[in-house]
Write a structure and sequence with these properties.
The protein is of the alpha/beta class. It has one domain: Alpha-Beta Barrel (TIM Barrel). The chain contains ten helices and nine strands.
Length: 274
């Protein structure tokens, strides 16, 4: 069933659990996510990101995501993540996505506020929710450094832009961690005390189970996952390299992604919520 991300995260916030957002770029990923959500009776958020569009055509992927959400037996929201260009945001709005993320975190605070407010002004009359990032969630490789979210600035940002969801930087990072990450949970609590909007954790792959649970307890209600899913796919591909039939390999890889998605759903506590 196609839901808005706002509907799903409002329930998660009220009932104290987290919901996974899973990036996809092909049929097998989307099928794995939907089946995992249905089998665990969990709401789920699926979508893609601007950086992934080089692997798939948006005009092909968008109908697949929306059709899969409509046909699912559980609530599914379709979201466009980490988008930097106005054109791609508009493509998602007109395609029927229920939410988009504009990432202006590399800009000055003033530019981020101005651009985010303008996109909110366009998206909200169309019934589309807006996620933005404040601070900077860096790369686990260290190539891009984290800039932690300032709680007072977070409150100012939400008030001035009208964003529906706020991605915060509290120590997680995108990609595969070289060193064990350390989340600033006290900072998260301070942000939560200043901001009523659902908070989002990017760079979730590679965190410990306790990191996830403590983050959700501290106010995170959307958790972005990608690297752990493709790692499961890569590991299964390597293990099954002797498989002669390519379609059989696809099914085995899909099963591995399904299992990792189920594992994450149970950690986030969204299982049996529908």
């Amino acid at each position: 069933m196609l839901y808005l991300m706002k509907e799903i995260l409002t329930d998660a916030q009220q009932r104290g659990y987290g919901v996974g957002y899973f990036n996809g770029s092909n049929l097998e990923m989307v099928r794995a996510y939907i089946r995992a959500a249905e089998d665990t009776r969990s709401p789920i958020i699926i979508g893609t990101a601007e950086v992934l569009l080089k692997y798939c055509d948006f005009d092909w992927l968008a109908p697949l995501l929306l059709y899969s959400a409509r046909m699912a037996k559980v609530p599914v929201a379709v979201h466009l993540d980490h988008t930097y260009t106005f054109d791609n945001i508009m493509r998602a709005l007109y395609a029927g996505f229920g939410s988009v993320m504009y990432d202006g975190s590399a800009l000055s605070y003033e530019e981020n506020v101005r651009n985010s407010a303008e996109i909110a002004r366009i998206a909200h009359p169309m019934g589309v929710g807006l996620e933005c990032e404040l601070g900077k969630v860096g790369q686990a490789s260290g190539e891009v450094k984290n800039v932690y979210t300032d709680p007072a600035q977070a409150a100012d940002f939400v008030e001035k832009t009208g964003v529906d969801f706020l991605a915060v930087s509290i120590g997680s990072a995108h990609g595969t961690y070289i060193e064990t990450p350390r989340l600033e949970l006290d900072l998260l609590k301070k942000i939560r005390a200043k901001v009523d909007a659902p908070l989002v954790l990017h760079g979730g792959s590679g965190l410990s189970d306790d990191d996830f649970r403590n983050s959700i307890k501290g106010g995170i209600h959307k958790v972005n996952i990608y690297t752990d899913i493709i790692t499961a796919a890569i590991n299964k591909t390597r293990a099954e390299c002797a498989v002669n039939a390519y379609p059989d390999l696809n099914l085995k890889v899909e099963a591995a992604m399904y299992e990792e998605t189920v594992r994450k759903i149970k950690i986030f506590g969204s299982d049996n919520k529908y």
